[in-house]
Specification:
The chain contains 4 helices and 13 strands. It is of the alpha/beta class. The strands form 2 sheets. Strands 4-3-2-1-5-6-7-13-9 form a 9-stranded mixed beta sheet, sandwiched between helices. Strands 8-12-10-11 form a 4-stranded antiparallel beta sheet, with no helix packed on it. The longest helix is centred in the middle third of the chain and has 16 residues.
């Protein structure tokens, strides 16, 4: 089962195109996005301090179950939503990659931690996609959405990422180490004709961020 968690923030209409077959969960102001794009969530969760009053009332009247938590809590609404999803499920968090920087960083850190615990999780807002790698893993980044204008950045989330190897990217890496704070592996592009890129690591935690270069 694929789960989609929709958060609040400055989501563009492109985000709706990310949602496929599966269960949808609206986290607080994600309710407003669902209503704007005729998406019916399985349930909505949060303290509901960000959703518009009209949106909250509309979703309540529609019969969508609400899981309400106090404003003073130890988890964000997004983390609450993720805690409701089976650990073996595939998850896409529809969340902005712009807007409030603290929210963006929090979502990347949260997703990285959950990935390191064995969760299959991606962040996407229809414009930028963020996937994660941990010790000994590899992934294929699908570049078809952006084509030749794809920009691929490998962002270290640990002090040192050991043994990074790439295929299908113009600037290739072959068992290289990446250091936290270095921009060496930012803004790469596909090899001519490549529709996907393979990235693998030996040790560490790495974010693979794909968007449009222009």
């Amino acid at each position: 089962m694929h789960y989609y968690v929709i958060t609040g923030g400055p989501l563009t209409p492109e985000a709706a195109g990310v949602i496929g077959e599966g269960e949808v969960i609206a986290a607080d102001a994600g309710i407003d996005f669902c209503l704007a794009h005729d998406i019916r969530p399985s349930f909505a969760i949060g303290d509901f301090d960000s959703v518009t009053p009209s949106g909250l009332e509309q979703i309540r009247q529609s019969g969508v179950p609400l899981k309400t938590y106090p404003v003073e809590k130890d988890m964000t609404d997004t983390e609450l939503a993720l805690s409701m999803i089976p650990s073996d499920a595939e998850v896409t968090v529809i969340c902005p990659q712009s807007g409030r920087l603290d929210h963006t960083i929090a979502n990347i850190q949260l997703a990285s931690r959950l990935h390191s615990e064995g969760r299959n999780i991606t962040l996407d807002d229809g414009i930028t996609s963020v996937q994660f790698l941990s010790d000994g893993e590899s992934l294929f980044a699908d570049l078809t959405r952006w084509g030749d204008e794809s920009a691929v950045s490998l962002v270290p989330l640990d002090k040192t990422i050991i043994g990074v190897t790439t295929e299908g990217l113009y600037y290739s890496l072959n068992n290289e180490n990446l250091e936290f704070g270095s921009t060496l592996s930012y803004s790469n592009k596909p090899e001519e004709g490549a529709s996907k890129a393979r990235i693998s690591i030996v040790q560490g935690h790495l974010a693979v961020i794909v968007g449009r270069a222009v």
